[in-house]
Amino acid sequence: MATVVEQDDAIATAALKSDRFRLEREADWIRLEQIVTQMEKGKSRKLDDEDVLALPTLYRTLLSSLSIARENSLDAGLIDYLEGLALRSYFLVYGTQTSFGRWLREFFGGGWSRAVQSIKLEIWISLFVMIAGTAIGYVLVAGDSDWFYALVPGNFTDVRVPGASQEALRGTLFDTEDQDGLGVFAAFLFSNNAQVSILAFALGFAFAIPSILLLIHNMALLGAMVWVFAQRGLTVDFVGWLSIHGTTELFAILLSGAAGIHVGRAIAFPGNRSHLAAASAAGKRAALVMAGVIIMLICAGLLEGFARQLINNTAARYAVGGTMLAFWLSYFFLFGRNQKRPLS
Predict the structure, then answer these.
(1) N or C: which end of the chain has fewer CB within 10 A?
(2) Nearest CA-CA partner of 301 in 226, 227, 236, 246
(3) Where are the domains of the chain?
(4) What pLDDT is recorded for position 241?
(5) Cβ–Cβ < 8 Å for 174, 312
(6) What is the pLDDT of residue 342?
(7) Measured between alpha carbons, how far is residue 305 from residues 120, 155, 184, 193 in Å?
């Protein structure tokens, strides 16, 4: 009989302790829950400044209350309530609180350019690799024309092959009658370069070695094609034809290669951080760069689909390509350079 009474007394004491604990802190919990509910409903702008500033403090107070409740084995229902509120609060305190529209404004308003500026070293490395790849393709084909057929897919070696006449090659650049064939080749370049951009980034985790090799191979194809036109004195015209969409397209490849190299370099040389932490930080910056690369590839596709067909003059082609190159350089390396707040 005494045991039953003691158990009842223990339960009553625990309930009293739980009630007292709740009464002492419930006001803060209720206030935090009201703030969290408002924010979850997308009504953050209606909150007072005091409530916004108090959110982190109330959250820490809640965690303290939850810890005490667990240590003292208070009411299970109370602990469940505190755990649920803590979880909801966590995402609001530490999560990304921004709308898609705001994210886009921040992205184009400097977030993308700052991400690019943060991987300058890798951009220089990627640029060097791409120039080297082009030179390798040019030199290989110049030494042995059979290399051309090893580098360039067979279904695009119609008249643009070693030994082709100047008239035939010029026709691929200017004759409107050959626009269909030229369009197919340009579409191939765009599709190929889009795949290279994605793969150059995706393969960066393997210490960036596959990314570098991929850039070399892709640019060797371009170098081989440059040699074909250079042998007939059409280098300027060919580069002009390519520049309309090429300055945007090749810039996108440059950035994607740099993003992959950035991830690979972080994994290979993490510094004072763990490999996982270094890869995570590098991956976030590289992913932001790649989000912009997709946009650049879309722009390149539009230029290839419309401007290339409408412009049939080398000087005008250079004007379009040069304008696009100047635009990207200005945006990436001048715009947003003084804005230090990173895009989250």
Answers:
(1) N
(2) 246
(3) 2-97, 103-333
(4) 92
(5) yes
(6) 44
(7) 31, 21, 11, 15
Phi-psi region of 162 (alpha: psi -120 to 50; beta: other; left: phi over 0): beta
pLDDT at 2: 47
User: One-letter amino acid identity for 6?
Assistant: E
Q: How many CA atoms lie within 13 A of 246 on its CB side?
A: 14
* Single-letter residue type at 344: S
Report the alpha-carbon distance of residue 334 to residue 344 in Å, rounded. Answer: 21
* pLDDT at residue 183, rounded to an integer: 57
Asked whether the beta carbons of 223 and 137 are under 8 A apart, the reply is: yes
Name the residue type at position 256: S
**Which residues of the chain carry a pLDDT beneath 50?**
1-2, 4-5, 340-342, 344
* CA distances for 297 relative to 37, 72, 100, 121, 318, angstroms: 41, 60, 21, 23, 19
Burial group, residue 304, by CB count within 10 angstroms (0-12, 13-18, 19+): buried
Q: What is the Cα–Cα distance from 327 to 123, expressed in whole angstroms?
A: 17
Q: Does pTM surpass 0.85?
A: no
pLDDT at 344: 42
Instruction: Calculate ∠ Cα 264-130-114, nearest 5°.
Output: 55
Alpha carbons 323 and 320: distance in angstroms, whole number: 5
Numbers of helices and strands, H then E, in the chain: 14, 0
Return the pLDDT at 68: 86
pLDDT at 14 (0 to 100): 53
pLDDT at 12: 52
List Cβ<8 Å contacts ≥24 apart for 228-236.
228/141, 228/148, 228/160, 228/161, 228/162, 228/164, 228/169, 229/160, 229/169, 230/138, 231/162, 232/164, 232/165, 232/166, 232/169, 232/170, 233/166, 234/166, 234/169, 234/170, 234/173, 236/314
